[in-house]
Queue: 3 jobs
Job 1
Amino acid sequence: MGLVQTRNIVKDFPAGETNVRVLHDVTVDVNAGELTMLVGPSGCGKTTLLSIMTGILTPSSGEVIIDGTNLTALRDREKVLFRRERLGFVFQQFNLLPALTAAENAAVPLIAAGVPFEDAVARAEAMLRDVGMGPHTAKKPNQLSGGQQQRVAFARALVHRPRVLVCDEPTSALDATSGQQVMEILRAVALQPDCAVIVVTHDNRIYHFADRMIHMADGRIERTEARGEIHDA
């Protein structure tokens, strides 16, 4: 059984007087200790599925189970608390606060959870050291390169030790070298036996980092490849 499980997920969106179905009976397992990639053309449903997996969107039918909790059965506030405790997010845009230092940005999830400011910043500094940003903890985002800002975003996503790390196009704004470096960080996270990493990507330069690749097309799972079957461009 996967750490993250979706079961028969259907998602419809209203379009005038009718509905458009964007996900068709999607069943997926994401295993702990693995890096799973969701790939496929634009508009195939990857981001919608990711949003449902994390409780941001509610499916029209079906269920999502994360670490034994039926996410679809929770109330909205319970979902917010669940995400805060169990999930980490890395987005295509880094979304760093320009007035804060790298350490303060990375500490935001802890501060939001009620951790005292000084303790939160100290834990964030330790996490920044883990992702290779030790010399830059006092710098603000405009003093950092794109790759460095992405590392701060990783530290922010990981600082509360989530069970599941979710990444939406984490390398699309980076050059090849920076993209490989951040994927090495993700790979290290995915190797932890109690964690899972989910990456939505169009970047075929990073496919070889995946343990499992789920190909989507037209709102359906087209095929799944295991490590050893996956090739870069």
Job 2
Amino acid sequence: MNTTKNTIVKISLAALLGLSGTGNAWAADTTCKGMGKQVIDSDLRFSLTHSQIPGELAISTHKMRVAGTQYKLESTSQAKGFLALLYSGQLTQKSEGLVDSQVGLTPLYYAEQRGKKPVAESMLNAETQQVVFKRNGETAPYEKGLQDRISMIYQIATRLRCNADLKVGDTLTMRVMSTGRVANEVFVLKKTEDLTLDLGKGERRVSTLQFETKPEEAGDEIVRIWYAKDLNWQPAKIEIQDADGKALTQTLIGTGA
């Protein structure tokens, strides 16, 4: 991830939009039998905070709907307080595609919209088997297993539901499309950890696996995602840390519609 990181505001926007070494056997086998059955409807709500700004910056909602062999996934962030003074409207990511019985999520369309700016889209051209980036007019070859900036989070959750027998150091490498290019994302299982969450019914402890991206270049952001075993491997916490150590965090505060 090569987002410019000169100011707190820029890292805030990057995090709201998403999202955006050697491994062992899991790196070579990123699917398992019947993986498509592990793609499920989801309604999650996150509180967004920053390590250097007091208070809650935004509320983010993630909604996944599966209908037969198709899915729709949307993440919407509504700014609050300090961030709302600078940016109007919502920050939205959309991912749509197929649910493959073996591969899991297979995105065919991805879009981002920042406030009132035009929608930036990427999509598969089925005739040419190319990913088309509407923003810059460029293309890239379509690859089996390709994910996008939001589906990658839920693809890992799907993989964990299928088989969570993992060890620290296991890696998951994915090709991921944004609105302008396709790049590698290497997630490393760093540790197991208990988190305390407040999902609206009082605090509760959940057991998690924490994954962390391996930067391709010096200065790249690091993304950390905690998946909660006690919540059917839904993402419980998502953190983006810049090269200066500033971190923006989405923490799960609610489940269900």
Job 3
Amino acid sequence: MTGMNAEKQQAVKPHYHGHRDRLRARFLENGAEALADYELLELYLFRSIVRRDVKPIAKDLIETFGSFAEVIAAPLHLLQETKGLSGKVALDLKILQAGAVKLGQQNIMHRPILSSWTALLDYCRSVMQFEKHEQFRVLFLDRKNRLIADEVLGKGTIDRAPVYPREVIKRTLELGAAAIILAHNHPSGDPTPSRSDIDMTQQIIKAAKAININVHDHLIIGRNDIVSFKSLGLM
């Protein structure tokens, strides 16, 4: 009787179990590079959604938001609107994003930024690339150009984040920083500096220079590229 029950259970075993095992094996053998974005998302969802086929959910998420990175960066309320995705699972995805951001931050915090420039760009991309509204950040450095703080000093609409030079300078003095790097995103995806971006940057540089604070650069994060004011000769 026991043998018959075992055979019956095996016969009704969900079809996706074998798929999950195969996907895990591919990941173990070849890493994430061997998987499409929806497959990597499936791997993560396996642990949150145990008793359902998650491939359709993963594909819906990628189709809706565009990529693995865009899925985990999506607002919580939009994730919750996805069919088959509970509030708990949506929150799990946001926790994954928070972990990725924290990892990037650890790679640059208290380290000389100018010699860790690639890590800095990767971090800025991870925290701002898929933001739906404009966000203005300031990275504060000590006299050895080590990052001591990273703060959002302005949040706005899809095309503007209000930033006041006096607030930037005030916070720089409060932290005892010797230099700063400015960064903001363009939700449109195009990182080309606007006239207002250039004017605002010049105002901050002028105010910082008066108190011997160095502004190393201003970075604009687009969908696929990052533009440096210094590289463009704008500062």
